[in-house]
Design brief:
Helix content: 40-55%
Radius of gyration: 19 Å
Largest sheet: 7 strands, parallel
CATH class: Alpha Beta
CATH architecture: Alpha-Beta Barrel
Strand order of the largest sheet: 1-4-5-6-7-8-9
Bound molecules: coproporphyrinogen I
Order of helices and strands: HHHHEHEEHHEHHHEHEHEHEHEH
Oligomer: single chain
């Protein structure tokens, strides 16, 4: 058995299956007591990501707890800005904080060239995870989209409106494009190394796509995601690796998302006007279910899960997932319950 026989790879190849493959965004994380037990040994979250044995242990935790069809690398999207010298730390209750955020065009010019070797700890984690999972279980590697990485790098921390970032991209257009190009090149080299180390699938997280108007989204995000996907499709190492694009609440239509050349679109839970008929036969689909449903009782979870199954039952290539990551307030028992409903439908 190889990963080609797995139902995730079949679904990504747009095959219609009787039961969808199942995995969850943030399937490893703070909602799991076994994660919290490991996490408390590290002050800084990124120090934990820099330990390949610990990353392997954390990636395996959800696979041991639930009946899932894919592993996802345990790491974070902010490894690239950290490697570029922006120095990312994670502060309790605040989240990621950059010691050297981008504040000017001068700062953009000062950024060092990305050396893919500086993230060798990630590729080592990929190798460890790959060795520890069944031969037919795919491992998903990932990166943040160039835009999402640029947004954190300019803002310097998370934010509800990314005001500094919006001012910067308006006033420093050329530098913004320079920065986006640098991140696109870095993402390509980074993902290529993840694939060399054993990643079978790639997911690109455009978690801050929702900040941009339609035109800005095309100019500052989709253009670079498309360039990244095309670079991966044109490289002999990554050419056959299926690519999933998660774009959070993007203000563009279905056709424009599909034009990115991704193999699969991961649906954010609010994208109610996504046109599945425009997508049919062109891309696989993933997700859709509102993660907050998992805070409800089991009757409601069951009802909502069945609605999603019904909606996609004839869609060629549907992957069950949530419409965004599992949040820390979710009871692992509900994940088990939901997984069983999907598996036994
Ligand atoms: O303190 C802690 O324990 C840190 C919590 C945590 C975890 C478990 C962070 C900090 N990152 C991660 C792991 C992670 N992050 C994974 C691998 C685990 C898995 O999926 O099983 C992945 C794929 C990510 C990706 C990631 N990091 C995204 C994209 C997904 C999304 O949710 O949209 C984003 C935006 C980040 C940034 C980030 N890292 C961590 C936090 C709390 C955040 C979000 C900060 C914010 O709200 O802006």
């Amino acid at each position: 058995m190889t990963t080609t026989d797995s139902i995730l790879i079949k679904a990504l190849g747009k095959q219609k299956l009787s039961t969808p493959p199942i995995w969850y965004m943030r399937q490893a994380g703070r909602y799991m007591p076994e994660y919290r037990a490991v996490r408390k040994k590290f002050k800084n979250f990124l120090d934990m990501c820099k330990n390949p044995d610990v990353c392997c242990e954390l990636a395996l935790q959800p696979l041991n707890a639930f009946n899932l069809d894919a592993a996802i690398l345990f790491s974070d999207i902010l490894t690239i800005p950290d490697a570029l010298g922006l120095e990312v730390t994670f502060i309790e209750k605040i989240g990621p904080v950059f010691n050297n955020p981008i504040r000017s065009s001068y700062d953009v010019n000062q950024i060092k060239m990305f050396d893919p070797e500086s993230l060798s700890y990630v590729y080592e984690a990929v190798q460890n995870i790959k060795r520890s999972i069944p031969a037919d279980m795919p491992l998903i590697g990932f990166c943040g989209s160039p835009w999402t990485l640029v947004a954190y790098s300019i803002e310097g921390h998370s934010s509800s409106n990314f005001k500094k970032t919006k001012t910067f991209i308006e006033n420093e257009k050329d530098s913004t494009h320079d920065l986006l190009t640098r991140f696109t090149d870095a993402c390509f080299l980074y993902l290529r190394e993840q694939v060399k180390a054993g990643a079978d699938v790639i997911q690109i997280f455009d978690s801050w796509a929702n900040l941009l108007s339609r035109n800005d989204l095309i100019e500052f995000s989709m253009k670079y995601i498309t360039a990244l996907i095309n670079a991966l499709k044109n490289d002999p190492i990554t050419t056959n690796i299926p690519i999933i694009l998660f774009s959070r609440d993007p203000k563009i239509d279905t056709k424009e998302l599909i034009n990115s050349n991704a193999d699969c679109i991961s649906l954010y839970w609010k994208m109610k006007d996504f046109n599945t008929e425009d997508a049919r036969g062109k891309v696989a689909l993933q997700g859709d279910l509102n993660p907050k449903i998992l805070l409800e009782n089991k009757d409601i979870i069951s009802l909502e899960a069945n609605k999603v199954l019904e909606k996609y039952k004839d869609y060629p290539g549907y992957i069950f997932n949530l419409g965004h990551g599992i949040t820390p307030d979710i009871d692992p028992d509900k994940i088990r319950f939901l997984t069983d409903i999907i598996r036994n439908n």
